[in-house]
Every structure is written in structure tokens, then in C-alpha cells.
Target: Molybdopterin molybdenumtransferase
Amino acid sequence: MIELADARRTLLAACPSIAPVALPVARADRCVIVADVVATHAVPPFDNTSVDGYAVQAADTVTATQDQPVHLDVLGSVLAGSVADRPVEPGRTWKVMTGAPLPAGADAVVMVERTSARAGSQLGAAGDQVAILAPARSGAGIRRAGSDVRTGETVLAAGTVLRPAHLGVLGSVGAREVLVYRRLRVGVLVTGDELVTDGGELRPGQIHESNRAMLMALLVRANCEPMDLGVASDDVADLEQRLRHAMAACDVIVTSGGVSMGDSDPVKAVLERMGRLNWMQVAIRPAKPFAFGVLDGPSAPVLVLGLPGNPVSSLVSFELIARPALRHMMGHVEPYGPSVLAIADEQLGRPLADGRTAFLRVLSRIGPDGRVHVRPVTGQDSHQLSASASADALAEVPDDRTVQAGEDVLVYPLS
Ligand SMILES: Nc1nc2c(c(=O)[nH]1)N[C@H]1C(S)=C(S)[C@@H](COP(=O)(O)OP(=O)(O)OC[C@H]3O[C@@H](n4cnc5c(N)ncnc54)[C@H](O)[C@@H]3O)O[C@H]1N2
Ligand code: MOO
Model:
């Protein structure tokens, strides 16, 4: 058996690289950017007002009180998107709306609530007078040019995993497209003669298929574009035909089933004929068997990831081995998910010492101490998917020990 860390290292080293692509900003969420993004202009591009109010010279307002307001002549109104056509001079003011350019000559904006003109009032035409009820500090109510982003500043560094606010930042500096590692197109092929996909009556020996929808959803959550390759029967010709079709359309093919020691595993037979595959026995429970290889696709190399068929094994294999490889190909500097040091609320035992690190499915909660607490779900066998579905994390329990209630344990949130 091979340790998980070694299996992951070997796999990551074998992953083909993917050419970057320029995506419209609105379609780039969760992608990793390839190069630094440098602002070609300042944000905001000009001094502007942060409130609805009156742009003034602060010196004019020093004596203003509720009882003895300062009266200023209104030059007109400036809306966001328009510009004042003359400066503010002593005794004068422009009514300004949030985001409007600060008129020249003004050094403060008095909120409309601190004037005799209440919010929503129409007062703001040239010739009106407004009463200022409180003094304004110089600089109040003003957002300076470049106070968010300076010209020439690196707003996003290469390697950033884009989140919604980053897309906003790209918009704010005028970027329409961004160079990213693109989402991988990943074909999902489940295998097994016993699998029924149409929800119909089960004949003796048959079971309903469960892994395809699960793996496709896991891929979406990993920011990939899954492609359903259907269910291959244990017929070699059918399988080969499906795989060849997939190689033309996909960057990666994920298979489920047929990677253990079974006599008639067609996946093994076909993949071995198409390229060199690495068959691994990873020292983890579940998800021991795993296969991978790089096939010569018609236009580019195609990575094949062979997950075990047992549904829980498939899930755990994806989380611990396949997803890091996909993330690596999509430019993630940190391909592995986050871990949390949690407290075991119950004993996290293992049925037998078999040289494999157990990844028990656990349910987490935040305790009154503010820390993450976990307890195992009931049903830890690799066919007991319904039990695992109620878990939200994997707890790592080394082969040679049991984690006692109250002890710390490393956990990995599930997708
Ligand atoms: N002699 C040995 N036998 C097994 C070993 C071993 O080391 N020596 N390893 C076991 C482990 S661990 C696992 S995990 C499984 C992996 O088996 P395969 O990847 O070859 O998967 P299959 O044999 O095709 O299926 C296993 C099991 O899962 C069911 N299955 C498969 N695909 C689906 C699906 N899409 N939906 C629902 N259920 C599925 C299948 O019917 C089998 O019951 O091997 C052990 N054996
Ligand atoms: O690795 Mo298997 O997943 O133990 O059942």
C-alpha cells in the first residue's frame, strides 16, 4: 500500500497542464487568475461625495448650529454621472447626490439631514437657499480619488481564487475579461453490469445506480464542467467506444468502479490497452483502490482518474485524491481542502488495525466553547451511503490508535 501523501504527490506530478483562457469577468467566479491584474486608473477616478447633501467650504459652516444656522446660496444640483459647471465659493453650495463628483472649491459635504432641507426634499435648484445646522469638518463626506485603488496598483495577484467580491474589483478597474485557468471538462463514466439507471424494477443481482449524480455534483462544486458519459456495461467494446468519444471532448475522465481485484473488470482491461495506468492501493479507509493515467487524446493529453465503485469509497476518493488533482490542474496553489482541529464528542474508533488511516464520516457542530465538535455517523462501511450523506466532514484517525471522547482530531469538511 502507498501512503495518501505519496499517492497525492505522484498523481499531482503526472497531471497534464491546461492552457489559460480569457473569460468574461462575470463567468470567472471560483477560477484561479494566471497573472497579476494591475489597475490602469484610480478607483474612484475622481473625488466624490459619500452622502446626499451640500458641498461646502468647511470654513463657511464653523458657526452653524440648530438655532443659528448658516444660510448658503444653492448653485444647483449635481447627480452621480454629472459635473458641476462652476466652483463652490464662500457663501455658495451645490446640492450633491452620493457618488457625484465633488465640485471644485468644496472641501466638505454636509449631510442633507443636517440642513433645513430634509431628506427627499426638492430644495436644490439654483436660487434656493439652504440652512446648514451643524459645522462640517474639512474632508467630511468626501471619498478621495484613488482611496480604493491607486493607478498602477496590483489589485489581484496571480494565483488568486476568484470570489464574487473579486469579480466586482475587476469590474471597478474596467476589466471585461480576465486570464484564468479554465474550468476542466470532466467526463463521468460509471461502470457495472449490475447497475440500473432508469429507476425500473430490479432483477436479481441488480442495484440502482448512485454514483453518477453524486460525482457530477461533486465536480460542479469543484468548479469543473461535468459531462455525463453514461453507464458502461461490463462490455469491453462499449466501454472503449465511450472512452474514445470522451477523450475528444474532455480534459479529464473520472470513472467509478472496477478498480479492485475483480476478475472481469473491463475498465482495467480497456484503459490498459489505451495507455499506461497506475494502479494504487492507498493506505486509507475507505477508498483504498485508485487508478490514474494520462491518455493521448486527439488534441491534448487526457487524465483518467479511476475511483472505486463502492459509493462511499467513490465519494471519499473524490474528496481526498481526485479533487486535489483537478484543483492542481486548475491552478490552485493549495490543492488540498482546509482542515480543522476539532474535538471528538464520542470515541472515534476503528474496526481493525489494517495499516490504513481511517477517514471516518462525522457530523460537526460548533460547541459552546466556540470550537468544532464532531461525532461519527452510524454506519461507516463503504456501501452505507445513506449514513455518510448525513455527515459533513471526514475525521482522520491514524491506523494505530483510537481517538477518545474529548480528544482533538483533524477533520476535513466535505463538499
Ligand atoms: N479481494 C479484494 N477485494 C476487494 C478489495 C481488495 O483489496 N481485495 N478492495 C475492496 C475495496 S476496499 C473496494 S473500495 C472495492 C472497490 O471495488 P471496485 O472499484 O472494483 O468497484 P466494483 O467492484 O465495481 O463495485 C464495488 C461495489 O460498489 C457497487 N457499485 C459500483 N458502482 C456503483 C454505482 N455507480 N452505484 C451504486 N453502486 C455501485 C457495486 O455494485 C459493488 O457492490 O473493492 C473491494 N474488493
Ligand atoms: O476502500 Mo474500500 O473503500 O475500503 O471499501
Remarks:
- The two ends are 26 Å apart (CA to CA).
- The mean pLDDT is 94.
- The helical segments are 4-14, 164-172, 211-221, 236-249, 266-274, 311-329, 385-389.
